[in-house]
Design a protein that fits this description.
The structure holds 2 protein chains of 2 kinds. By secondary structure, chain A is α/β, with parallel strands linked by helices. The chains are: A alpha/beta, B mainly alpha. Chain A: This is F-box domain-containing protein.
Chain lengths: 236, 163
Amino acid sequence: MDRISELPKEILHRILYFLSQKDAVRTSVLSKSWRYIWCTRPNLDFSHKSFKGDKTKFLSVVDKTLQHYCNQRLCLEEFRLCMLGDDSADQESVLFFDKWIPLLTSMGVKDFQLSIIAEQSVRGIIDLHVVLKAESLTLLWLYNCNLGQNIPENIPFVRLQELQLCNVLIKNEIVDKIISSCPLLTTMLFLDCEGLKTIKKIRPHWFSRGSWNKERKLKELGEFVYKIEKMRESGN
Amino acid sequence: MAAETGTPTTLTLKSNDDELFSVAESAAILSVTIRNMVEDGCAGGVIPLDNVDGKTLASVITYMNGISAIPADEEKKKSYRDKFLSDKDFETLADMVLAANYLNMSCLMDAVSAKIAQVMEKKSVGWVRRKFGIENDYTPEEEAAVKEEHKWTFEGVETDDDN
């Protein structure tokens, strides 16, 4: 047998770890010994952009794969999902999120990265508050989405490191809650978030953890608050 | 251990083809396998590494010395790793990934795995087969069936023609 196919499965998994879902799945065609290597690797990385098919098909591939991992009790450590396009935040995908988010929690996923980049036209129509229940999130990027009006009792993002919200409808109280319950946050970006007036709960202990540069970050937050205030003054 | 005596300790590693190598303990303990031996006090004499040949072990030790000389600076470590692996052919990379796995060196394991993955990235099945000498043992019907099952993965892949 050739050298690469002879490598132990755990090494092949590590190699496939660095490939997109598409490249990893395609290795199943290489030869019989490669047939099922991809579908036991400990990470999944789905991007609607590289999928190129229609969204219903994309959602069904993600769902089928996730279900396979769950049914076979396979170890899944990382799950990355990137949805984008005019219909990425429609009712159909929200139904899948409703199913996947508890599933990922029950499967013990440690690193969940979610990007939902919707077209501006759909903003506000679909309530994505289910995202606020995703326990293992380490990265959350939302563009043109609506996180709903209900303020959840707990935000379970104990692992969240990076948060980017652009043109997201979100209650100020939810942002305050996210900030006060995410000790590992190192990167935060808010752009054009209607409903977000100020960040109140800047906790000193929050800056001493992780890699925060206290002064710099405080300054950035200060500027952010300033921008928001400025916007309100000018009547926007 | 070195930290207790205050003098740098040197370990002797033996490859499976009986070559002996001296390496500073501080560099060698990048390998969790070796670190465990040191911590258990089993690293006094010669440490036999039955799964690594001399050529590969020499290379791994170069890496251990190089990376441990860089202070905690992830960017510099990354650029060292990139440079270290840049001239290695696939046979060498395969030896190194096996050694890294055996020695439990996650940083080297990841760097080599990523490097191998990079070769496969966005490439067609035919190209990857040729590159790695993988023999296609599917019948045409079987291959067509597997392709059909994962049709979505065949769009936007580089064609075979350029290689």
